[in-house]
Amino acid sequence: MVHATTDPAVLVAEFDLHGDASGSAFAATYVMVMTVRNGLITHSRDYTDTAAAAARLRALSPADSTAG
User: Where is 54: in which H helix or E strand?
Assistant: First the structure.
């Protein structure tokens, strides 16, 4: 989904990433803020829920066998 802003050179894109890692499906939502000049992206900044991403990675990783 693309959202217009009050600055015609800036747009906001919202998208979902879906995958299947190690037999475990996951999904993550991202927001990207971009500045476009002369048809080229001159600046971009991505946003996501990093705590949720870290939790998903921990769930996919095998337990640390050296902990104890």
Answer: helix 50-60
Each residue's pLDDT tens digit, 23-63: 777 778 899 999 999 999 999 999 988 887 777 777 766 66
Calculate the CA 15 to chain-centre distance.
8
Between vectors from CA 48 to CA 50 and to CA 44, what angle results, nearest 5°?
Answer: 130
Beta-strand relationship, 24-37 and 10-21: antiparallel
- The pLDDT tens digits for 13-32 are 999 888 876 777 777 889 99
Q: Name the phi and psi angles at 23, rounded to 5.
A: 80, 5
* Distance of alpha carbon 34 from the chain centroid: 14
